[in-house]
Specification:
Elements: H1 2-19, H2 26-50, H3 58-77, H4 87-112, H5 121-144
Helix pairs in contact: 1-2, 2-3, 2-5, 3-4, 3-5, 4-5
Length: 155
């Protein structure tokens, strides 16, 4: 998560620099919007991982998990637009969407009767959950809008 976030932040800086003084095209704006969206999702995921409680008291865990679940429900269902797609890309989008929906459903089942074994169980489980969902989410996002990898500076 951190490496994606760092890379996307740098790509955002690079794009803003390239936009300076010129009007970006529609495709560039779509990529830029997607970039900002991904940064927001990754920052939220990072905050949810960092704020996961280290306790066996289930009251704060339930409240925190409600936030995590609401976040994941949004991530599973939102922003289904991008450049026009041919049949093959539509199938890829559907496959990625189905995979993300399945992973989210599996995560919800896992937490339906969650009981922490020790103080670190919940924190570790939330980190694992989010780190399970994010790569599948990234596949879906790339099926809608591919963000070109940053070109590294040559030494």
């Amino acid at each position: 998560m951190a490496s994606w976030l760092d890379e996307y932040r740098q790509i955002k800086v690079d794009m803003e620099s390239a936009f300076n003084g010129s009007a970006p095209g529609v495709e560039q704006l779509i990529v830029y919007q997607e970039l900002i969206y991904r940064i927001g999702v990754l920052e939220t995921a990072k905050a949810l991982c960092g704020s996961a409680h280290a306790t066996t008291d289930t009251r704060p865990l339930v409240r925190h998990y409600q936030l995590v679940d609401a976040f994941l429900r949004c991530v599973v269902s939102e922003r289904r637009f991008g450049l026009p797609a041919d049949v093959k890309l539509k199938e890829r989008r559907q496959t990625a969407s189905d995979a993300l929906t399945k992973v989210h459903a599996d995560c919800r089942k896992r937490f339906a009767s969650f009981r922490p074994v020790d103080e670190n169980t919940y924190r570790e489980s939330i980190n694992q959950l989010i780190n399970t969902v994010l790569p599948v989410w990234m596949q879906l996002r790339n099926a809608y809008t591919d963000i070109p990898r940053r070109k590294e500076a040559k030494a």
